[in-house]
Neuronal pentraxin-1-like (Notothenia coriiceps), 426 residues
Amino acid sequence: MTGTMNGFSWKLFLLSCLVVVQSSAQDFGQTQFICTSVPKDMDLCAATMQNSGPADDLKTTVMQLRETVLQQKETIMNQKETIRELTSKLSRCESQSLPAAGPGGRRPGVKNTMGDVSRGTTDTLAQLGQTLQTLKQRLENLEQYSRGNNTAQANSLKDLLQNKIDDMEKQVLSRVNTIEETKPTVRNETDQRNRVESTLTTLHHRITDLEKGKETRPTDKFQLTFPLRTNYMYAKAKRSLPEMYSFSVCLWIKSNASPGVGTPFSYAVPGQTNELVLIEWGNNPMEILINDKVAKLPFLINDGKWHHLCITWTTRDGMWEAFQDGVMRGSGENLAPYHPIKPEGVLVLGQEQDTLGGGFDATQAYVGELANLNIWNRKLSIAEIYNLATCNSKAPAGNVFSWTESNIEIFGGATKWTFEPCRSLN
């Protein structure tokens, strides 16, 4: 009888192991298990509960992991659906922004001027920028032609360019807006958009001038406006400055920005980004930097009125003089003595350069209006500076850098307007 009971206990033990193994295998797959014998006089369920604490914890953990995986799977499915929707919208925007395809699948007016807009976004925007630059050059030719030859042919060419620009603008902005919706953090594409918008702004201003009959406007009668403190709005001289052992720099300026009007201009060379800088930053007075050496200037200009500024400097003893509205306001010496201004640099208007031609900081950007920036490689006389400030016909133009439209490129949305010194004051 005892043998029979022992045999029954072992059968019960084996049955218990089999039940646990079978139920656990369903939850855990291939796993190793340790079976515990159950006394013959103990309830099987109670014994199982007493000895299965760690197993229950493990099972709970696995169930939690399984739930997490299911949630992640649902999230991935939702993201895939979102991607499909964005892809569908992008395709619709592209199809709406382009003319209907003609014979052979070519879109009229697009193939030869813009290239295939279905290419990668970077390549597409690069081609759009190149095309707009080409239109800009053609428009400059139109301006020169119309100044001396106001004929029906010139007007016809102007209208043709205007229509082309309008079509181009719609396609460019449609494409760029779509890109920003799907990739809002891609810096390269944002930079491309700024360049395209700058070119469009320039084209529209020049077309407007032509339509208003300003074809005969002198090329130096304009001002630049920087309405916002940004790190992308600026103008750049097309040529570098030469080596200079003395200089005079003069300009008209109007701003009420506070604190500090920012950086009207900066000239950087390889190895020295502060070769020649005019800046008013924060609550500091306006300063001029030469080879990163600083002199504080006695200017008071942030009253929202036009002011004429001139600074002269010679490398011998680092002598400098500062003039506001034709009157000397201060002078000094030992400003970067015996250091010639170096050539092969980049002259930027409206921004301070931390790298050659770039590295702009919005907090140092110029806010206001600027005109008639001229640079000479000599020290101007007091009489010459007075003539400049009073718009005398004998006033000289810069022999190193002169204020003409052909010498300046505009970027980032800075605007250009007609300006005549003294007539436009305040």
Observations:
- The chain is about 40% helix and 20% strand.
- Confidence is low (pLDDT under 50) at residues 1-29, 93-119.
- The two ends are 121 Å apart (CA to CA).
- Residues 53-97 form the longest helix (45 residues).
